[in-house]
Amino acid sequence: MNGVELRDGVVAVVKADCPTCRLVAPLLSTLDVEVVSEDADAGLATSYRLGVEAVPTLVRLKAGEEVERLVGWDRAAWRSFTGVADLGDDLPQYRPGCGSRTQDPGVAEELAVRFGGSQLRARRVELGALEDEAEAIFDRGWTDGLPVVPPTESRVLRMLEGTTRAPDEVVGVVPPDLVHCTVEKVAINAVMAGCRPEYLPVVLAAVEACCTSEFNGHGLLATTYFSGPVVIVNGPVRRAIGMNSGVNALGQGTRANLAVGRALQLVIRNVGGGRPGGVDRATLGNPGKIAFCFAEDEEGSPFEPLSVSRGAPAGASAVTLFAGAGVQPVVDQLSRDPESLARTLAVCLRTVAHPKLVIAFDALIVISPEHGRVFRQAGWDRARLLDELTALLQLPGSELVRGAGGIAEGVPGHLAGTTLPKFRPGGLLVTHAGGRAGLFSAIVAGWASGETGSQPVTREVGT
User: Of 60, 190, 337, 455, which has the fewest Cβ atoms less than 10 A away?
Assistant: First the structure.
């Protein structure tokens, strides 16, 4: 079984560099036990089969099944286990054992591949002896244009340790090809993206959100617009996996931010078939379509967490997906009252997509700490800021109609006598992130809004 067969009786698993194993070695030579050293290759097969985590370990087998186990050296326990009343009179009463070699980094996954019988269902791709792994992956079209980590079986097994979910559980149906995507498939792409196992639950939540009809991932891919999924992470998982919500939060340099965002995009590409030039028809795209993921700075925020404002329980880890394009800077270094700063945000928001186009596009506002301080000191919460922006962005139709200002773009002429909102109800999201120096904030323009396009989706992060 699992590469090794053991006779009934007592098996003792030891290793050469363990002081406790050396301590009890003379005793083992006097007992009717089968001694297996982990220093021999077959020793790890035995350790894997018996689930040994520390040495020395004694295991009693009957009819091929374990009936009793003892770990480390404890004189009284060994005497009871062996039935030898005076065993170890000249030894200390107690000594702890050492970690089994099966617990060394990377070893458990290799043993699972060798002896465990693979639990993975994905098709294996054999490479030639002279093939370069990175180039082979490029040639097969599995990358986003940058090198990826080869998803070997041992790496995928290690990634799957990051979740309690079964490898064959379906996470969602990934557009555009509407392929059923399992936890295993997500794990494969998470490996390729450079994720650590503890990132996997966040990636799974992002994939689930992306596969909803509300987010409309198929439409987002097929549009000629700039946008792609933007992932905003809330809750304890931000700190647990080392996400960045501070300096350069929207940029490079943080593994968790980039790997999580990239893993989602690779799932869309490799599982769903969403490749540029195929269903992905973006005229220009934006660099965020490689990876756009950041954590909200909840601790310094004047607002409640974005996820809580969207219905997630307080204290829960969650991801929010927003269909966003590139980052538009907002510079205001002089406003010291919230009314003035809100007006700055409003005039910048008016330019989303086009100053004369209204209702059709959502937007995500990222308030930096220095701007956030202005709102916090004035006692403004998210609702107050949104109410103020909504009022400031009620626009006269006479300025928006086609031809106004000598610009052909705009709304139909019959709306000239109306007042129109720049954004639909719920079309503005406000979050908080960034470094603590710099009176700058940012706007991430959205794609077509609401039921005709994409709606933001929030999902809790599971285990």
Answer: 337
Q: Which two tokens stand for residue 121?
A: 């269902």
One-character DSSP codes across 322-345: EEEEEEEEEE-SS--SHHHHHHHH
Question: Helix 382-392 vs helix 338-349: angle between axes, to the nearest 10 degrees?
Answer: 60
Distances (CA, A) of 323 to 231, 292, 328, 337: 9, 10, 15, 31
Are residues 57 and 182 both part of a single domain? no
Q: Give per-residue pLDDT as tens, 241-252.
A: 999 999 999 999
pLDDT at 4: 58
Q: 56 in a domain, yes or no?
A: yes
State both tokens at 50: 């018996």
Domain count, the chain: 2
Pair of tokens at residue 164: 């309690």
* Between 448 and 421, the higher pLDDT residue: 421
- E strands, 16-62, are 33-37, 54-55, 57-62
Which of 168, 163, 244 is closest to 433 using CA atoms?
244
Are 382 and 303 contacting, i.e. CB atoms less than 8 angstroms apart? yes
Q: In Å, what is the CA distance from 388 to each residue of 94, 203, 273, 393, 433?
A: 70, 35, 42, 9, 21
Q: Which domain holds residue 22?
A: 9-104
- The answer on pLDDT for 110 being more than 90 is no
Per-residue DSSP letter, 218: H
Q: Are residues 309 and 438 in the same domain?
A: yes
Looking at the fold, whether 334 and 232 belong to one and the same domain comes out as yes
Based on the domain organization, do 97 and 148 belong to the same domain?
no
311 torsion bin: left (phi>0), alpha (psi -120 to 50), beta (else): left
pLDDT, residue 313, reads 97
Tokens, residue 417: 């006598």
Residues 100 and 195 grouped into a single domain: no
Averaged pLDDT, 408-428: 96
Q: Are 199 and 330 members of one domain?
A: yes
- The answer to whether position 226 is within a domain reads yes
Are the beta carbons of 167 and 182 closer than 8 angstroms? Answer: yes
Question: Does residue 448 sit within a domain?
Answer: yes
Is 399 in the same domain as 302?
Answer: yes
171 part of a folded domain: yes
What is the C-alpha separation between 411 and 391, in angstroms, rounded? 20
Write down the pTM of the prediction.
0.85
